[in-house]
Amino acid sequence: MNNTYLKIVTATLMLLSLLPETAASDVLSTCVAKKTGALRISKACKKSEYPLPLNSEGIQGSMGPQGPKGEPGNPGKDGVAGAGGGGVRVSDANGQFLGYLAAPPVAMGQNAEISVQIYIPSLKATATIGTRMSFATEFDGITHRADLAEWNAALGWRTIYPYFTTADCTGTEYYFPIFIDYPRVYRKDGGYAIFSDKMPAEKVAIQSHRIKILDQNNQLVDGCEAFNNGGDWMIRGYDSTPVTLPFNIPAIFPLRFE
Hints:
The chain is mainly beta. It has two domains: 3-54, no CATH class; 89-257, no CATH class. Helix content is 10%, strand content 36%. The strands form five sheets. Strands 17-12-11-7-6-5-4-19 form an eight-stranded mixed β-sheet, with no helix packed on it. It has a three-stranded antiparallel β-sheet with strand order 2-1-3, covered by helices on one side. A hairpin with a 5-residue loop joins strand 1 and strand 2 (39-41).
């Protein structure tokens, strides 16, 4: 290595160690003797010297390796509450929220028994609640205490009695699809469950269906009756998933609509 170059480096280091700290943007002007390598601070160099700026910004280096992952940041602030939905809220007489009105109330029978279909947001399913006796309603002469519709009693013969493609009620059981648009919640076996059709539906020609008939002792027994639907969409039963209702049962009537 050239001795002159070593002298320049050594002198530069010694000079920088003696100088006060400068900002990164400051440039220190020096001159280096061409023959001896002597270094002096000056903005004007002699012919026997060449300029050597110190502390000047060099060429950008290559990107270094990625640093370690930082700690998780603090949780952000809660967002602004969204606007309320436009549905009709259904509550019982005690103000307990049941769901949103899914269909207008229906009055049936001599006593004008009421049933109301509601949509339960947390279950994403509908349910029917009312004062009909099949809904396990209690009435103390003043107040109705109502439960949800019971599975078989609410849907009647469509779910109780299966249909067959044979003439003697044998073979694969078929049922009418009733939950194509949305699942429903029903009371079943002391609890509650969401029911839905077993899909896909099949287009079949029904020849018979099972019914209840009176025997010689006036007892209801299973019977078979001819039934021709000319070919219709049918399913092979219903799926059910147990659920817990988000409100207390029985619900106290009269209901409130808001």
